[in-house]
Amino acid sequence: MKSLLYAVGPLVFDSLGVIVFAVLLGLGASVVAATIAGTVAAVAVVGWEVVRARRPAPLQWISLAMVLFSAAATLLTGDPRFLMIKPTIVYLIVAAAMLRRGWMNRYIPPEQVAEVGDVMERFGFVWAAMMAATAVANLVVALAFTPWWPLFIGVFPLASKAGLFAVHFATVQYIRRARAQRRIGPLAPMLATE
Fold it and tell me: Is the dihedral of CA 150, 156, 22, 135 positive or negative?
């Protein structure tokens, strides 16, 4: 449970602005209200890191930029098509940022990096692929199934992230245990006789 909380906390915190925006939009809030609430949340996250004299993580900056960009574009253009296509661009930027090796290591305790850093690195690329797939799906829904877009953007991105997170977390925990068992396995008879 401690590992789960260690991983979920920063992930939710890093993406809080986008999460607030998507949830409110999915619940039927106006685009302006969802944008303002998401902007406040994203600014608060980055501000909290700055106040604590910590360097904001790349995903925190991306979340802030995404919400601020959508706020400005929505308020200036009033064009809903821009708002619907914008997540595609943002998801592609996030996917590109996720192609950096080792970016996921901040989501596990430092002492576990040596144990499962290789697994985290591979999952970093899986996350990048999922973000790219979400970008494509958003574009298709926005252009071909426009009436369904608010439901899609309110549900799919969060649900797909939650599903991948569950698979990722379970896989890392399983591999950690298996590797620990392999290390302890040969020593088990000696430990039992002591």
Answer: negative
Enumerate the H helices of 15-148 as residue ranges.
16-26, 31-51, 58-77, 80-97, 113-144
User: Which residue is it, tokens 């979400």?
Assistant: 134
Residue 92, C-beta contacts closer than 8 angstroms, at least 6 positions apart? 131, 132, 135
* CA distances for 85 relative to 20, 50, 101, 151, 169, angstroms: 19, 31, 28, 14, 31
Q: How would you class 73 by CB atoms within 10 Å of its CB: exposed for 0-12, middle for 13-18, buried for 19 or more? A: middle
25: number of Cβ within 10 Å: 22
Give the Cα separation of 135 and 103 in Å (integer). Answer: 20
Query: Distances in Å between the alpha carbon of 83 and those of 15, 133, 160?
Result: 18, 18, 20
List, for residues 84-124, the tens digit of each pLDDT value: 777 788 788 888 888 988 888 888 888 888 889 999 999 99
Integer CA distances (angstroms), 167 to 46, 73, 102, 170, in order = 28, 35, 19, 5
Q: pTM of the prediction? A: 0.64
* Domain ranges, ordered by start, for the chain: 2-183
The residue among 93, 118, 91, 92 whose CA lies nearest residue 105 is 118
Backbone angles phi, psi at 5, to 5 degrees: -65, -35
Q: If you count them, how many residues does the chain have?
A: 194
